[in-house]
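All the exercises in this workshop are built on plain-text protein records. The record below serves as our worked example for the rest of this section.
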Amino acid sequence: MEAKAKVRKVRISSDKARLVINLIRHKKVNEALDILANLNKKAAPIIKKLLLSAIANAENNLNLKGAEMYIRACYVDEGKTLKRFSTHAKGRAGKKYRYYSHITIILAKEEKIRRIVDGAKS
């Protein structure tokens, strides 16, 4: 079972958000929250709020506990780019780009992996 949370049209570039998302990919939920709480990046509070929303979705909709979950997938997609112009010297115009992102986090229940050791069957 999977719980999903998505935020769209966040006013941050996708490259800056990917720096933070890559730190928490495939981690347990508690470990990811600790990383996000101590990170000094613009995207960290946005992603932390999204992660808390995914945990709430898992608890309310699927009756799963947040401590048993891990981040199965998380990714950042590029959103719309707004193009603006500002005045520069000698009557010229300079381009400014405003980047937006769409961020998605998917949580899954942690499954125990059984391994066969030295031909022992289980």
